[in-house]
């Protein structure tokens, strides 16, 4: 659109230029007036503003009016203008036109006196934001005969919209739905095509009318009761009814309610059930009371007692009888109270008769059980041992002793077993023992495997180097870096200890003691120092100072083994290449100072004069010719005397052997147990330290034979009387085989 103003421009027409000359002259006069400082700009020839959005009056849209102003900018004379779509006029006029829904672009054009035209575009917006009008049906009232409510049907709701016309509303709950007792508001909504939603509501009221009598759900069958005295018998029964209202009706049995006394003979009981609305229902049943009952035996319930010996247990009980006519009666029972009852279940039979000859018989069971597992003693205390390697440590311990009240000592099985490898950290050792009836006793203790041994640190040999600048030697210099990187550390548990040092970034001229520190994964730390002497920077071409050979820790010995015997442990190992000699130390695993027991080149050593039953920890350290040490290899051993003498462990025999063991001076007797395929087949209590096995014998009521196969035998010392069940630690176990 071309804009015209009082100054014209390059696009002005000739007429405009002529007109401008006159105006310019006048303007010039005005501009030189003494007090004139501004000029007045001419108004635009065409002014039209976007009308405000208009709400639709129907499906065709709405009539929208807006004002148009068209005047010559110089003369101010009105000129003609037209808007498409819309209308036309001259000067100031109003356009009134029906526009459709949505936004319509309108272009207004005015013709100036010089026949040129100017245009102005506007946007006319017709919108629909008016929701539909919803008319609901009238409120509905209905009645129900069930407390759950009723399905109610109601009339249809209607809706109209200015733009869309008639619409079908949706009502919730819908017609035909189940409406509960009370008043429910139904909301009906309708949405036009432009998303405008209108709603209206009405109510559905449902009332409850109860005209149904209660229903008996449980009526007793004819009852026959035995008289308990001359008055008859107290009879209890159950009767119940329900009502459609959901409330429990009241039941009246006319003085013959449950729990009342009924006389001898037949009584007809009539019961009436009534609901809150006054609806009634009746039911009846007969109750017959008679006297044909034998005496009542008063016997104990089945009894369960724990055995206190291998014979079982003495059990006492009380039994009696009563009769409605004869009163108290005696009861005859077998076995009698106070008898010894064997392990297992015994039936006690009892009987009683009244004066009329009515007899009652009854019984109860007495079960003597062995349900208590073996009791433990000598459970090892929680302990802490040093790790022998990355996998942890082999731990030896003496298993606890387990004794059972009926079976005597029992074999104890512990997991992990003594001699197993325990990993770093705390491991709970759980021990179990089972008696002949499968009862289990348990005990536990913990073993903590820790690493408190420092790494072995080898630092570089002291050396001298030249400065690489007047200030000294940078730690990044290859000679300095080689010195710092030669530190090595080895550890028996951590394969990669961390090494650090306190070297400065710049070594000044002079002597520097660098401290190297090695830390293993368990936090054990060792530090050593090495000297680096920095000499002044030499003249060019001076050869470097000699570098001492690098120090390297020797390899650990391999194949370390420990064979424990009676008061001794034999160690053996293999020495790798580069090892000058080994140093062997031992210490008690429970704690104590390590002692050097061997230094030399041999590959075995026997440690003598040890205490049986104490675990020893051995460390074998490799030493090279320069005195460098390895991290060391550790192993544990538990010396123990062999107390089972004959037959030798693993012996192959063709006839029943005589078992022989070392005598315990304090023992009153011994318990010997024999197993085949992990099944106990013999338990004997000899008073001497020998037991001759037979080819055939009986145990636990079963016959056994010494057939070909593998056998394992155990011996425990017993103290005092056998009934005291006081046994010491097992003397051990041994094996033999019966062959053909």
Characteristic key phrases:
Immunoglobulin-like, 2 helices, seven-stranded mixed sheet, mainly beta, five-stranded mixed sheet, 740 residues
Give me the secondary-structure topology.
Blueprint: H1 14-31, E1 46-48, E2 54-55, E3 62-70, E4 80-84, E5 88-99, E6 102-111, E7 117-127, E8 133-135, E9 140-144, E10 150-151, E11 158-161, E12 165-167, E13 170-172, E14 178-179, E15 182-191, E16 197-208, E17 215-218, E18 223-226, E19 233-235, E20 240-242, E21 250-252, E22 260-262, E23 265-274, E24 280-290, E25 296-298, E26 303-306, E27 313-314, E28 320-323, E29 327-329, E30 332-334, E31 340-341, E32 344-353, E33 359-369, E34 375-377, E35 383-386, E36 393-395, E37 401-404, E38 408-410, E39 412-415, E40 420-422, E41 425-434, E42 440-450, E43 456-458, E44 463-466, E45 473-474, H2 478-485, E46 488-490, E47 498-501, E48 506-507, E49 510-519, E50 525-535, E51 558-564, E52 569-574, E53 581-588, E54 595-600, E55 604-607, E56 616-623, E57 633-637, E58 644-646, E59 651-653, E60 658-661, E61 669-676, E62 679-684, E63 690-692, E64 696-699, E65 702-705, E66 709-718, E67 732-738
| Mean pLDDT level | 88
Going by helix content, strand content and strand pairing, the class is mainly beta
Domain count: the total is 8
Major sheet characteristics: 7 strands, mixed
CATH topology name of the largest domain, in short, is: Immunoglobulin-like
**Uncertain stretches:** 1-39
Strand content: over 45%
Helix content: under 10%
Count of helix runs: 2
| The CATH architecture of the largest domain | Sandwich
Radius of gyration equals 57 Å
Strand order, largest beta sheet: 1-3-5-4-6-7-2
